[in-house]
Amino acid sequence: ALAKEAKDLTEALKNPKMQGNWGEMILENVLTSAGLAEGKDYEKQAFLRGEDNSRNYPDFLIRLPQGRTVVIDSKMSLVNYKNWAVAADEAEKDRFLKAHVKDVRAHIDELSAKEYQNLLKERGLDFVFMFVPIEYAYFAALQADPELNEYARQKGVSVVTASNLFAVMQVVENLWRMERTNKNMDKILALGAEMHQRVSRFVARMEDINTKLSATRKSYDDAMTSLTGNVGIIKSAVKLEEMQIKHVRSLSGALNDEAPLLPQQK
User: Fold this and answer.
1) How much is the pTM?
2) C-alpha to C-alpha distances, 122 to 10, 23, 95, 204, nearest whole angstrom
3) What phi-psi label fits residue 47: left (phi over 0), alpha (psi between -120 and 50 degrees) or beta?
4) Average pLDDT over residues 175-199
């Protein structure tokens, strides 16, 4: 079954360019299946500019929280793996498997030499991912060379297949959700603090208005007391009016007493 799958894959992927496109397609399916979105969580075929102004094109740049980035490269020759899978002779199988291991090591060296970590500077991690689209292609190489993982680690490369990369990308997606939740919480807390300040300013202004209204009420009450109180203007006016009436009446009585009697008409 393995040989048939490898043969079918060989027929479908006639040249390295097609193999590369197929590998990128498998890789992107892993990213989207894990919940990542292009343009937001990852970029493909983006370029990194070197110190000599050269452009380097990693297959995928995965964005991580806190402004970090990790590179994933998916290009690797699978010709010797295919030949190993379909070979009937044991000697040939052994020769092709050794060649396949050599291909894996060569790609690790090639990927390490690109020094993507240095190009990313403070945004980068200490390693890059090397994606092998056929799961068993790496397992077969690892069985033949158990030191592969350690060799890759020393070169700053982490070899991944679809299954373990999917798990890693799920962790990345979860970290992004936590990051966005924390940012939303920060915004909520900031908005709450701003609302508290606004409410405090509003209460202070209302208290100021109340103080001014109280002062205005007191001034009004004082003015009304001046007008209507026991010693107010109205009381004085009433007394003045009463005094005038008494004076007029007294004056009128006096005039009546002093006036001569007029003769009565017949």
Assistant:
1) 0.62
2) 41, 29, 43, 48
3) beta
4) 74
